[in-house]
TrEMBL record:
It is an enzyme of class 5 (isomerase). Belongs to the class-III pyridoxal-phosphate-dependent aminotransferase family. It comes from the Bacteria. It comes from Bacillus chungangensis. Keywords: Isomerase, Pyridoxal phosphate. This is Glutamate-1-semialdehyde 2,1-aminomutase. Its EC number is 5.4.3.8.
Length: 462
């Protein structure tokens, strides 16, 4: 039965297999981002509409990956497409390469929605936003080290590509995690300058922060780890209090949680105001974007001054030492901001956010009820319109709690779901959109039940 299932699936996705084989000849590993790969080959998509994706072989899927959460209004929302086309006709070009009006409009909107933001700088990705926030913190405090939490991801740059998914044998003590590199090319100095903290353990975190306070510029945190494990409120309040006392800046990485935990991000849910906030994903309405927002006195250290351009020639170019350099040809791209603003306007409409959360909770409740009816220990963990499925009845509060979860069972379920038309990169979190409907929810729950029966039968056969 297994071989027949595998053969059928390979036949139905032959186009993806051939594409991947060809891509491997010209793109390392066949993918443009390592996270897009999964064995035996990633499914190659041809087009999308609403809550659906169609692959190169014509198979249709209900999409819960949604470009890793970026597409909160689904694929090809007509209002977003119209907003981009309208702005293109208005300015007559794709990009001006100069300041433009939408930069102010978007910055004002972010300041209105996010309690911790007084001023804004735009980037082209969440990664760049996190990088800029750390550079600002280092410059503002004149301290070199940063701290991050075990299991948290802030983009693929060296200082934070540490202890995201560390091996159990290398991770170290629970109250004092080791800094474990997640890639080749990370230097010892970068590891030494990155302190790893235990998430949701305030006592141990405070001890480490006090021990390194004189060297720590900032603590960067995903308020909801991986987009699905929320911080305890007491932990967030305590962390804010300690960092203020020790003159350590607090950076919220809200790339995943921005507009998904709430319109004003997780910071509006917790009532905790960080010094700096990194945003991305939903902010771009389906286009690449990032942004750093924060307190005015911190943000102003990136403001250019006379002769502060690193490309100016002559002795006065040394004035760059007084400014945090930040630049990027496509920062504040007008098409991106047009799309992002329209997405925010959609989310601000009456009951929109409530409806996404309602559909999300219907899916979560329906899945929990279905698995429970088969005697399977499963829980959904998340906040707002994002969650994950965890096969355990034990509380999940940090990365190490995931060590006790039956990962292989989840992997098997996800593989069957792909065959049944539910698209999610195996093991990833679920994201919902404004266009997921009751029909999608019911089909998804039914597909999970069918996948579960197949997996249980295969286990019995073996």
């Amino acid at each position: 039965m297994k071989n027949e299932d595998d053969a059928s699936w390979k036949n139905r996705t032959e186009g993806s297999r051939q594409f991947f084989k060809k891509a491997c000849n010209v793109i390392p590993g066949g993918v443009s981002a390592n996270i897009k790969f999964f064995p035996p080959y990633p499914i190659v998509m041809k087009n999308g509409s609403g809550s659906k994706l169609i692959d190169v072989d014509g198979n249709e899927y209900i999409d819960y990956l949604l470009c890793y959460g970026a597409l909160i209004t689904g694929h090809g929302h007509p209002r977003i497409m119209e907003a981009v086309e309208k702005h293109f006709r208005l300015i007559g070009t794709t990009i001006l390469g100069t300041p433009h009006e939408l930069e102010i409009t978007m910055a004002e909107k972010m300041i209105q929605l996010y309690p911790g933001i007084d001023m804004v700088r735009f980037t082209n990705s969440g990664l760049e936003a996190a990088l800029l926030a750390i550079r600002m913190a280092t410059a503002y405090t004149s301290k070199e080290k940063i701290a991050k939490f075990e299991g948290h991801y802030h983009g693929g740059f060296n200082h934070v590509l540490v202890s995201v998914n560390p091996d159990k044998k290398l991770a170290g003590a629970k109250v004092q995690p080791n800094a474990v590199p997640e890639s080749k090319g990370i230097t010892k100095r970068e590891l030494d300058n990155t302190i790893v903290l235990p998430f949701n353990d305030l006592e141990a975190t405070e001890t480490l922060l006090r021990n390194h306070a004189e060297q720590l510029a900032a603590v960067i945190i995903e308020p909801v780890q991986g987009g699905f494990i929320p911080a305890d409120k007491e932990f967030m309040i305590g962390l804010r209090k300690i960092t203020k006392e020790l003159n350590i800046l607090l950076i919220f990485d809200e790339v995943k949680t921005g507009f998904r935990a709430a319109l004003g991000g997780a910071q509006s849910v917790y009532g905790v105001h960080p010094d700096l906030t990194a945003l991305g994903k939903v902010l771009g309405g389906g286009y690449p974007i990032g942004a750093v927002g924060g307190q005015k006195d911190i943000m102003m250290i990136s403001a250019p001054k006379l002769h502060s351009d690193i490309f100016s020639i002559g002795e006065k170019s040394a004035a760059t030492n007084d400014v945090v350099f930040h630049s990027g040809t496509y920062n504040g791209h007008p098409m991106v901001l047009a799309a992002g603003l329209e997405a925010i306007y959609l989310l601000e409409e009456a009951n929109t956010m409530n409806e996404i959360t309602l559909q999300t909770n219907k899916l979560r409740t329906g899945l929990e009820k279905m698995y429970k009816s088969y005697g399977i220990q499963m829980q959904t963990v998340g906040m707002g319109s994002i969650f994950n499925i965890i096969f355990t009845d034990k509380p999940i509060r940090n990365y190490r709690d995931m060590w006790e979860v039956d990962i292989s069972f989840r992997q098997a379920i996800d593989e069957e779901l792909l065959k049944l038309g539910i698209y999610l990169k195996p093991m990833n979190r679920y994201s919902l959109s404004t266009v997921h409907r009751e029909e999608d929810i019911l089909k998804t729950i039914a597909a999970h039940e069918k996948a579960l029966k197949i997996v249980l039968q295969k286990k019995q056969d073996h």
